[in-house]
Design brief:
Layout: E1 3-10, H1 20-29, E2 38-43, H2 51-60, E3 66-68, H3 79-92, E4 95-97, E5 102-104, H4 110-144, H5 157-166, H6 171-178, H7 182-210
Parallel strand pairs: 1-2, 1-3, 3-4
Antiparallel strand pairs: 4-5
Helix pairs in contact: 5-6, 5-7
């Protein structure tokens, strides 16, 4: 039985200041793995291919060998990679050992390990989709703002007061009181009424769903 080590990650990013690769490498070396038995893949940009891991699994790994990693997520990025890894573990008879859990072809807990790792991937995907959705909503809102220097699409407290005043007064009277143009008053009224209509439709839809 021979012990090997593997680590993967990104080098320090100038924007995020994160250095995942260095952090993982320090953990691996503290486990006592000889330097010449260590393999590493550095991710650059969108390239997250694990060339050194494939080299180890295809040409070096033998039955009974142990591959030590800081965490199991070092050896996969998605469901496809995890499933391929499981087949390789079963075929070669190696053990993947991490600080949290061990993965081998004869482990009684292998099914639980796979399920937990798949759950991790699913949750990570959920968080990613949630972040994308939030970014799209923010982008859509920003695009609705006036790009001419003023946020004309934002209903300010003054606009709300003018709208309430307009309910019982004429446009001319409202224009003189709040020093707003008629076109602005038209837009405020249309915008607030559209929002109220959208809110009523949403509440009615939600009520139908409950029923």
């Amino acid at each position: 039985m021979t012990k090997y080590g593997y680590v993967s990650g990104c080098l320090k990013d100038e924007v995020s200041k994160q250095d995942d690769f260095e952090h993982q490498a320090k953990i691996l070396l503290s486990m006592g793995i000889p330097y010449d038995h260590c393999f590493a893949d550095v991710f650059r940009g969108k390239n997250k291919d694990r060339y050194q891991l494939r080299k180890f699994l295809n040409t070096i790994a033998k039955e009974g060998d142990v591959l030590v990693v800081p965490t199991l997520t070092c050896v996969y990025s998605n469901v496809r990679e995890l499933c391929c890894l499981m087949y390789i573990v079963e075929d070669t008879g190696i053990t993947i050992q991490s600080e949290d859990i061990d993965l081998s072809n004869d482990s009684d807990s292998s099914d639980w390990i796979i399920a937990s790792q798949l759950a991790h991937l699913d949750y990570a995907h959920y968080l990613h989709q949630k972040a994308v959705s939030k970014a799209l909503k923010k982008s859509k809102y920003q695009s609705s703002l006036n790009c001419g220097g003023r946020n004309k699409r934002v209903i300010t407290p003054l606009y709300k007061q003018a709208y309430e005043y307009l309910q019982t007064h004429t446009y001319n009277a409202t224009q003189l009181k709040f020093n707003l143009s008629k076109s602005t008053l038209y837009r405020i009224k249309r915008q607030i009424n559209n929002r109220k209509q959208h809110l009523n439709n949403t509440q009615r839809y939600d009520a139908d769903e409950v029923i």
